[in-house]
Specification:
This is VOC family protein. By secondary structure, the chain is α+β, with helices and mostly antiparallel strands. The protein has a domain of about 70 residues: 2,3-Dihydroxybiphenyl 1,2-Dioxygenase, domain 1 (Roll). It has two helices and five strands; from the N terminus they run H-E-H-E-E-E-E. Strands 1, 2, 3, 4 and 5 form a five-stranded mixed sheet that branches. The longest helix has 12 residues. It starts with 16 loop residues before the first helix and ends with a strand.
């Protein structure tokens, strides 16, 4: 049987795609290619995985964002990255959650989208 084997991409609308791509490159280190996007090749030495998950229409998990989606990025040093982002003036949620699945923190991008940062467990 044919089946899905992973996440193929995250696609979303932006008021200014070039500026938003530059913001993600500068603040989160995304290696944006000339075509305007990022390709994440799998790395067996990198812990973690990619998820796809539907949330209830009335969830407040994405709040305070009004967007109908949230992006989750794997990170290697959550505390270090959150400190860098605060220093750069990025809106950082002071809540950091530790769980059996790892550590989670959140920021807002310049277009009001909540971004989840995930450091997988050691």
């Amino acid at each position: 049987m044919a089946k899905v084997i992973g996440l193929g991409g995250i696609f979303f609308k932006s008021r200014d795609p070039k500026a938003l791509s530059e913001w993600y490159a500068r603040h989160l280190g995304l290696p944006v290619d000339d075509w305007g996007g990022v390709r994440f090749d799998e790395d067996e030495q990198r812990k973690g995985y990619t998820l796809w998950s539907a949330f209830a229409a009335d969830t407040d998990y994405f709040a305070p964002s009004a967007q109908p989606y949230m992006i989750n990025f794997r990170v290697d040093d959550l505390d270090g990255l959150l400190a860098q982002l605060r220093d750069a003036g990025v809106t950082v949620d002071e809540n950091v959650q530790d769980s059996e699945f790892g550590r989670f923190g959140w920021i807002m991008d310049p277009e009001g989208t909540r971004v989840e940062l995930w450091q997988p467990p050691g």
